[in-house]
Amino acid sequence: MASIYIILGAAGSGRREILADLIANGLDASAPVRVYHTGEFDDSTFPAPVETQHWGISEGTLSVDTPETAPETVFFVADGRANPVDQMEIFAALIPRLGWKVARVLTVVHCSLLDQHPELGDWFKACIHFSDAALLARREGVSNAWLKRFTDAHKEACNPCALELVKKGTVENPARILLPEARRLSMVFDDTDPLDEMEFDEENLPDEPFDLKSKPDPYFERIPNGARRIQIPDIARFIAP
Q1: What's the pLDDT tens digit per position in 78-115?
Q2: What is the CATH number of the domain that holds 144?
């Protein structure tokens, strides 16, 4: 079974350099690795034995070249100009069908972009909701006070997602970042029992039959007109072509 790492974040946030560091310094150098991306990277960034392929979404279906022959470690780099919630909903539905298991979801936070455009806070908040670790990158021009406000707000929200600083495209401990330990708020990739989510009063059990379905992730919920209940900005408007 392939272990999948999903990399969220905005285009231009340094994900290519960070991913190269994670692979080179967090994994066995001789182990085959596959990186799926949407064309954002130059494939020559990743030397052998790293294999690169493109992925896409067509009519709600995840399109990948050869999922059945994937190595044990696979990285999926999300489209950094598209809605991460839409992508995560499709990943959550289709990745298990490929027989793959999500080891971790990582978000690369483009700090200078978020500093310049605070209205993108909800976009990054959505990414971090699905993530086990958030890597704070592109911090040029960002004050220590801004960074402290960001980390303090994260702690006050009691979000279990780990925060790590990125320095010159590298993290302090790549193996720790890749450790397959769930720290995400979202449970879309977890095997859950709907009964665990239901609150029963032992002295007042329901008389009528009830439907045993897990609650949808809050970011996946839709209102009657089909729109998502939680709306996030379109990040493509803030990124140069």
Answers
A1: 999 999 999 999 999 988 888 899 999 999 999 999 99
A2: 3.40.50.300
Among 94, 170, 103, which residue's Cα sits nearest to residue 131? 103
Predicted TM-score (pTM) of the model is 0.89
> Contact, 186 vs 37, CB < 8 A?
no
Paired strand residues for 228: 222
User: Residue with structure tokens 């030397």?
Assistant: 47
Tokens coding 48: 């052998």
What the block records as the tokens of 207 is 């008389």
Domain count, the chain: 1
Q: Which residues contact 217 (CB under 8 A, 6 or more apart)?
A: 92, 186, 187, 188
Report yes or no: 83 and 234 within 8 Å, Cβ to Cβ.
Answer: yes
Considering the domain boundaries, does residue 238 fall inside one? no
The answer to whether residue 25 sits within a structural domain is yes
Residues 74, 4: contact at Cβ < 8 Å? yes
Q: What amino acid is encoded at 200 in this protein?
A: F
Instruction: State how far the alpha carbon of 237 is from the alpha carbons of 7, 40, 65, 91, 125, in Å.
Output: 21, 17, 30, 24, 17
Per residue in 16-73, pLDDT (tens digit) is 999 999 999 999 988 899 999 998 888 887 877 899 998 988 766 778 877 788 899 9
Residue 240, token pair as written in the block = 């140069």
pLDDT tens digits along 180-191: 999 999 999 987
